[in-house]
Write a structure and sequence with these properties.
It is built from five helices and 15 strands. It is α+β, with helices and mostly antiparallel strands. It folds into two domains: 80 residues, Roll (duf1285 like fold); 100 residues, no CATH class. The strands form two sheets. The chain has a nine-stranded mixed beta sheet with strand order 9-8-7-12-11-10-15-14-13. Strand 1 and strand 2 form a beta hairpin. The protein is elongated, with a radius of gyration of 18 Å. The chain starts with a helix and ends in a 17-residue tail after the last helix. InterPro entries: DUF2944. This is DUF2946 family protein.
Length: 197
């Protein structure tokens, strides 16, 4: 978080949180009430002040007010930088991960130091270049067999990420929040019940 946020929290410690206003779409774009946020100044304010609470609910700390974020997919959306590295939608480099999975649609899920992250859509070419199997490159048949496995299965594939190779598991999209410890649709807890937006 930026210093101005901490100063605002000290000055106004009890500002109610907002729920249902902010969102993050599957492409890593911020939304407010379903409309894309396109102004770079706003995006540059949100990105460094985006974090998770102890319950796995992700939020933007806007000065003294916390705005919880509804997630279409994952808290962090990954993109390739075109040079073989992955970056979060907030601009953080992902050079390592603790665990990796493929979902039923072929998206890559990672448990990173920055939080739960997904790579999907146009950037899946990166995944194909970094997959390893009994035969490399991984062919379409093996990939199809892997995607057809039940959620929770181990696969014959692994992922090369930086200097490490991670075994790939299979994880359904709907199971990702529980396994990775995040909440897609944050709701107020009892003490916050009057703050819903």
């Amino acid at each position: 978080m930026e210093d101005w946020v901490y100063r605002a929290l000290e000055k106004w410690p009890n500002v109610p949180a907002l729920f249902g206003w902010l969102g993050l779409d599957r492409r890593g774009r911020w939304t407010i009430r379903g409309e894309l946020i396109s102004r770079p100044q706003i995006i540059d304010t949100i990105n460094p002040n985006y974090a998770a609470d102890e319950h796995g609910r992700w939020f933007f700390q806007n000065g003294p007010q916390r705005g919880y974020v509804t997630l279409e997919s994952a808290p962090l959306v990954l993109h390739s930088d075109g040079c073989g590295r992955l970056l979060t939608h907030t601009g953080l480099a992902v050079d390592t991960a603790e665990a990796a999975w493929l979902d039923e649609n072929g998206a890559l899920w990672l448990r990173t130091a920055h939080g739960p992250a997904v790579l999907e859509g146009e950037d899946l070419y990166w995944l194909l270049e970094h997959l390893r199997g009994p035969q490399t490159p991984v062919d379409e048949d093996l990939l199809a067999e892997t995607l057809a496995l039940p959620s929770g299965s181990r696969t014959m594939l692994s992922l090369r990420l930086g200097a490490t190779t991670l075994p790939l598991g299979r994880l359904d999209f709907d199971a990702a929040p529980k396994v990775l410890g995040f909440v897609r649709e944050p709701q107020p807890r009892d003490a916050e019940a009057g703050a819903a937006g």
